[in-house]
Amino acid sequence: QNLPMQNPANGHYYEIVSMNVDWTTADQMASSRTYMGLAGHLVTISDAAEDQFVYFTLAGGPLGNAWLGAYQDMNSPTYSEPLGGWTWVTGEPFSYSNWYTGEPNNAGGSEHYLGYWPSDQWNDYNLVSGNVGSFVVEYEPTTIGTTYCSPGVANSTGSPGAIAANGSPSGLSSQSSLF
């Protein structure tokens, strides 16, 4: 097993897990993994550069058939066959795609899971596919979102409370304080 490899362009780490499992199992396994304190998930691809890095750089590339972190959400308001409702496992916008010619095609009526085809292009697969022998895990730093409580409400001392946190993107050391 190769150690996760960092993409210098975005700072995320990626790992190939060679195992023939269905997409849901790959999703669960990816979500249960951590690397250097970072939580894992099936890979989400946001642009062509990331796509190329994942397919051609990891494990010496090219990967061949591997699960990616998107599925077709049949409850989505944008759902339609074959192109509607594709959703990344992280909820980020599905704004970049790299479908193989003629894909997605929903062959057999149940292809709702994303994977690489044996080229740096994508295919829609059934939940279970004997052709998909690996999956890609992505580990990325999480960011703290919008501040909703600033400047703070006065407490019993008459002063607002404050909270601060700092650390490193790698998660190797961190500290937080409440004052």
The number of helical segments is 2
Report the structural category.
mainly beta
Rounded radius of gyration (Å): 20 Å
- The helix/strand series, from N terminus to C terminus, equals EEHEEHEEEEEEE
Question: Are there runs of 5+ residues with pLDDT below 50, and where?
Answer: none
The strand line-up of the biggest sheet is 1-2-9-4-3
Intertermini distance = 44 Å
Amount of helix: 10-25%
Strand coverage percent: 25-35%
Query: Quick one: overall form?
Result: globular
Account of the 3D structure:
With 179 residues, the protein is mostly beta strands. The chain contains 2 helices and 11 strands, in the order ββαββαβββββββ. The strands form 3 sheets. It has a 5-stranded antiparallel β-sheet. Strands 6-5-7-8 form a 4-stranded antiparallel β-sheet, covered by helices on one side. The mean pLDDT is 86.
Task: Describe the structure using short key phrases.
5-stranded antiparallel beta sheet; mainly beta; 4-stranded antiparallel beta sheet; 11% helix; 179 residues; globular; 27% strand; single chain
